[in-house]
Design goal:
Blueprint lengths: L8 H9 L2 H20 L24 E4 L10 H9 L5 E4 L8 H19 L4 E6 L1 H12 L6 E7 L14 H6 L5 H7 L8 E6 L22 E5 L6 H4 L1 H14 L30 E3 L13
Length: 302
């Protein structure tokens, strides 16, 4: 039996309630939910596999595969897809799945099949993966437990409960049970993980109420040497619709592609350069960018 952790929860909630930016973030989250709901029906139609040709005719040859979260579909990726296309990522595709009838390992095997089809179609040796929420755990299982480490270059997770979330207690099915803190899947993924050659980047938020405790969205296992980036005051759904988060994700993938001026993944390139100084490459710790100064960023997405 797993005990509910409450050590930092009261302070986290009370601290958030005293900050006006928390309420701004809540309003944005409601708006994000409504926007995703309006587009959800379009995601029920399977997306035809195709290359999304970006600027420069596809300057970056590594394909990018986007994996949605629990109960969502590919319709939620329109913001990040547009940013990736504009940055020159020539192939951006999505992986759709239903979590209810399956568990995480079986869905991860289907993800592996999708990656192989993508590699055959494009001729690429490796792919980048971006996973939102449950999508990030599917990517981790594929890389850590299957053969994904050989064909994945970079994994970026957005609001993924790497250490489980208590919000999954109310959801049905085996997959939801595996999302809970202390589940066998969570324990297996976090027990002395070490994956050489794969870069890991995790975006987490202080007000993601679907990932509880919030620190669960960080990858804290030393063997993965992950970069953790705080997307301050972003709700769970807002993470995939925020232009600032999208720009930060793109810059992480551009760094992986060796783009001049992007530095390395460990140097934490951020969406707005003036928002926070870069962390030294020798210390891949958490960084942050603040969406409160909307005039400087979120309202001016490309």
């Amino acid at each position: 039996m797993v005990a509910l952790e409450t050590d930092q929860w009261p302070g986290t909630v009370m601290g958030a309630l005293r900050r006006p930016a928390t309420y701004v973030g809540a309003i944005k989250e409601v708006s994000s939910l409504l926007r995703c709901a309006s587009r959800y029906p379009s995601g029920m139609v399977p997306m035809r596999a195709r290359s999304a040709r970006g600027a420069g005719g596809g300057a970056h040859a590594t394909p990018v595969l986007l994996i949605h979260g629990f109960g969502h579909n590919h319709s939620g990726w329109w913001v990040l897809r547009s940013h990736l296309k504009a940055a020159g990522f020539g192939t951006v595709e999505t992986f759709d799945y239903s979590p209810i009838p399956r568990d995480i390992p079986s869905t991860a095997r289907r993800l592996g099949d999708a990656v192989e089809r993508l590699r055959r179609r494009t001729g690429a040796d490796k792919v980048h993966i971006v996973g939102h929420s449950l999508g990030g755990l599917l990517a981790r299982w594929y890389v850590q437990e299957l053969d994904g480490a050989d064909v994945v270059d970079t994994v970026v997770t957005l609001g993924t409960p790497h250490e489980g979330t208590w919000a999954a207690v109310v959801a049905p099915g085996r997959t939801a049970a595996e999302l809970r803190p202390g589940s066998w899947v969570v324990q297996r993924l976090n027990r002395h993980p070490r994956v050489d050659g794969v870069r890991w980047v995790a975006f987490y938020s202080n007000v993601d109420y679907l990932v509880q405790p919030p620190r669960s969205a960080m990858i804290r296992q030393p063997g993965l040497n992950a970069v953790n980036i705080l997307a301050k005051d972003h709700g769970h759904v807002s993470l995939i619709l925020s232009p600032r988060v999208a720009r930060a994700v793109v810059e992480q993938l551009q760094a992986a592609e060796g783009v001049a001026g992007m530095g390395t993944l460990a140097s934490l390139p951020v969406a707005i350069p003036a928002a926070v100084p870069s962390t030294p490459a020798s210390a891949p710790a958490a960084s942050a960018f603040d969406p409160a100064d909307a005039a400087a960023g979120a309202g001016h997405a490309p």
